[in-house]
């Protein structure tokens, strides 16, 4: 079962839901289809295209921006799945200031890393290990939250999620 991106009436991405939930929104008249997926839902009387992107008909006010919890999946999404030390494919996460040295498990202290770089750095600081970061870590945008929640993206989601690399 795939996932569908749900957009607010203003085309702002809200969340990713199972395609069945998106289909229910369409059938109830609460949303309109923006992009169809490759699959088809069939019943005895009707055949409907699988929704990939749906837009709500009425604007939903999002009460406040929530801070996304730090997880492996969301760190990989934020960093594009690449090691922040060498640029290779990341396989693990690394604490810039090691936890054994008092570093926190926060967005500003966690980056994606490949195994060789993570092993080379060990429990040293970045400077002591003779390494440097390719970009400064930061708390993610709402786009990354959508990616982290869904675990995957579809190519047609790109225009609604932004121009940064899309991976989870």
Plain-language structure description:
With 168 residues, the protein is α+β, with helices and mostly antiparallel strands. It has two domains: 3-64 and 142-161, no CATH class; 72-121, DNA Binding (I), subunit A (Orthogonal Bundle). It contains five helices and six strands, in the order E-E-H-E-E-H-E-E-H-H-H. The protein has helices at 19-27, 72-78, 115-121, 142-150, 158-161; strands at residues 3-7, 13-18, 31-42, 47-56, 92-95, 110-113. A four-stranded mixed β-sheet has the order 2-1-4-3, sandwiched between helices. The chain has a two-stranded antiparallel sheet with strand order 5-6. A hairpin with a 5-residue loop joins strand 1 (3-7) and strand 2 (13-18). Helix 2 (72-78) crosses helix 4 (142-150). The longest helix has 9 residues, at 19-27. The protein is elongated. Residues 164-168 have low confidence and may be disordered.
Q: How would you summarize this macromolecular structure in one to three sentences?
A:
This protein has 168 residues and is of the alpha+beta class. It has helices at 19-27, 72-78, 115-121, 142-150, 158-161, and strands at 3-7, 13-18, 31-42, 47-56, 92-95, 110-113.
- Unreliable spans are 164-168
Number of domains: 2
Overall number of strands: 6
Q: Write the element-wise H/E pattern from the N-terminal end onward.
A: EEHEEHEEHHH
Shape: elongated
Put simply, the count of helices is 5
Mean pLDDT: 87
> Helix coverage percent of residues?
10-25%
Beta content: 15-25%
User: Which value, in Å, is the CA radius of gyration?
Assistant: 19 Å
Order of the strands making up the biggest sheet: 2-1-4-3
Sheet of most strands: 4 strands, mixed
Q: What structural class is derived from the secondary structure elements? A: alpha+beta
End-to-end gap:
18 Å
């Amino acid at each position: 079962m795939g996932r569908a991106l749900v957009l607010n009436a203003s085309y702002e991405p809200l969340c990713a839901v199972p395609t069945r939930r998106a289909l229910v929104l369409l059938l109830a008249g609460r949303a309109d289809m923006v992009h169809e997926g490759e699959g088809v839902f069939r019943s005895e009387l009707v055949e409907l295209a699988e929704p990939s992107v749906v837009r709500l008909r009425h604007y939903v006010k999002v009460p406040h921006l929530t801070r996304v919890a730090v997880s492996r999946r969301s760190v990989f999404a934020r960093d594009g799945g690449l090691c922040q030390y060498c640029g290779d494919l990341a396989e693990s996460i690394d604490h810039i200031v090691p936890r054994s040295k008092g570093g926190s498990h926060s967005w500003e202290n966690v980056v994606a890393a490949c195994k060789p770089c993570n092993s080379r750095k060990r429990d040293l600081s970045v400077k002591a290990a003779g390494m440097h970061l390719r970009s400064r870590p930061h708390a993610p945008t709402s786009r990354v939250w959508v990616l982290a929640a869904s675990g995957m993206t579809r190519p047609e989601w790109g225009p609604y999620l932004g121009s940064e690399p899309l991976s989870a």
